[in-house]
Design goal:
By secondary structure, the protein is mainly α. The chain is built from two helices and no strands. It has helices at residues 9-35, 45-75. Helix 1 packs across helix 2.
Length: 76
């Protein structure tokens, strides 16, 4: 069986980005619901998705770098 090329950090982050952005959107929406207890406005779902798309970039990059380190350790 042929060896596959190594998974780069950028490629791994791009593969994981939809999941990271979705998770951040859900977390942002629920955080705004909790914030409503102290008088902050509740975000609409569209605002949460847009915020999740922005906040998903650093969160996904951090998670992808962690996974990349685990993959490197498993290869050793």
């Amino acid at each position: 069986m042929a060896r596959q090329p190594p998974m780069t950090l950028l490629r791994l982050a791009l593969i994981l980005y939809p999941f990271g952005a979705g998770a951040m959107a859900v977390n942002l929406f629920f955080a705004s619901l909790i914030g409503s207890w102290v008088g902050w406005p509740v975000l609409t779902p569209v605002q949460s998705v847009l915020g999740g798309a922005v906040l998903g970039v650093p969160a996904t990059w951090a998670f992808a770098s962690h996974i990349k380190k685990l993959m490197a350790a498993a290869d050793r």
